[in-house]
């Protein structure tokens, strides 16, 4: 039962990684943009939630409801006035701009909040657990996984069941033709990035409750998100969930063998999947 418990804990951890990756997957699927500042934007959202908690004395879950529209506006403004200017056939300018943005966010947070680790307190729910047969799971990890499934389901419904989703798909397939049909690709991109920032806020909420965070941890969150997206298949949201879970299970198994192998085991799983399936487990048909 030890190994069963280890795998279950890995699946629950994978839910957090899937939340890290969902926004990144959405943005890449629509505009083929690799946002190197994605991890730092998650950390920015965590500090925003922390600020709301400290100023208003709210529960982090309530504070996240306030932070989410603010982060949507941040994403919309960032895409409208910065990233749209560098999008094109050459992938280098967006990479350079988002790398620079990553540095700016990290240093801005460092100046504003110092290098001290912070944590969001959600009360007794943090230590609560549920018996599931012969094993026991934490309420927060389980809630994280459920949230990841709900978020990815909602994004899929948005993508395939709404007029906005039709605009997303049309712009992703051919932005020029979509523009001729009355769709404004730059506005579509801005909305997509705003939605990605709302997802990043949800990820930040669980990150802040489950672990300490500081201004420097963004790049590590980006690595987990990027690996989950690649493993799942570029642009595949359900594949992103599978990729996050695979990394989580690999890390849990590695830690069970030797605690020093936890992070390494996730990276090894990433490399193995790329060797076997270079386009990921569930690549989109039109990639």
Question: Could you characterize the architecture of this molecule?
Answer:
The protein is mainly α. It has a single domain, classed as ABC transporter involved in vitamin B12 uptake, BtuC (Orthogonal Bundle). 73% of the residues lie in helices and 3% in strands. It is built from 11 helices and 2 strands. Strands 1-2 form a two-stranded antiparallel ribbon.
Question: Could you say what the CATH architecture is?
Answer: Orthogonal Bundle
What is the helix tally?
11
Domain unit count: 1
- Tell me the strand percentage band: under 5%
Q: Taking Cα atoms only, what radius of gyration do you get, to the nearest Å?
A: 19 Å
CATH class: Mainly Alpha
Overall structural class, as computed from helix and strand content, comes to: mainly alpha
Instruction: Write the CATH fold name.
Output: ABC transporter involved in vitamin B12 uptake, BtuC
Largest sheet, strands/sense/barrel: 2 strands, antiparallel
User: Which percent range fits the helix content?
Assistant: over 70%
Order of helices and strands: HHHHEEHHHHHHH
Kindly state the number of beta strands.
2
Contiguous runs where pLDDT drops below 50 for at least 5 residues? none
Oligomer: single chain
List the strand order in the largest sheet: 1-2
Distance between the first and last residues' Cα:
41 Å
Average residue pLDDT: 92
Q: What features would you highlight for this structure?
A:
ABC transporter involved in vitamin B12 uptake, BtuC; 3% strand; 287 residues; two-stranded antiparallel sheet
């Amino acid at each position: 039962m030890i190994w069963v418990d280890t795998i279950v804990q890995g699946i629950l951890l994978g839910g957090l990684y899937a939340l890290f990756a969902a926004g990144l997957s959405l943005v890449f699927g629509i505009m083929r943009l690799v946002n190197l500042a994605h991890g730092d934007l998650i950390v920015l959202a965590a500090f925003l939630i922390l600020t709301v908690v400290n100023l208003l004395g709210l529960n982090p879950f309530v504070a996240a409801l306030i932070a989410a529209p603010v982060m949507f506006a941040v994403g919309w403004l960032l895409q409208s006035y910065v990233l749209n200017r560098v999008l094109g056939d050459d992938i280098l300018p967006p990479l350079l701009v988002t790398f620079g943005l990553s540095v700016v966010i990290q240093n801005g947070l460092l100046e504003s909040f110092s290098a001290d680790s912070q944590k969001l307190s959600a009360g007794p729910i943090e230590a609560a657990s549920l018996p599931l047969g012969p094993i026991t799971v934490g309420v927060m990890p389980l809630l994280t996984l459920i949230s990841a499934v709900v978020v990815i389901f909602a994004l899929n419904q948005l993508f395939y069941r709404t007029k906005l989703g039709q605009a997303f798909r049309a712009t992703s397939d051919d932005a020029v033709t979509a523009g001729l049909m009355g769709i404004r690709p730059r506005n579509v991109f801005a909305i997509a990035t705003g939605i990605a920032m709302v997802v990043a806020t949800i990820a930040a909420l669980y990150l802040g409750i489950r672990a300490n965070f500081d201004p420097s941890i963004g790049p590590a969150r980006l690595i987990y998100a990027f690996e989950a997206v690649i493993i799942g298949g570029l642009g595949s949201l359900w594949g992103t969930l599978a990729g996050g879970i695979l990394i989580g299970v690999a890390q849990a198994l590695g830690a069970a063998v030797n605690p020093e192998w936890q992070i390494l085991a996730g990276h090894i799983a990433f490399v193995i999947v790329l060797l076997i399936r270079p386009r990921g487990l569930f690549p989109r048909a039109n990639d």
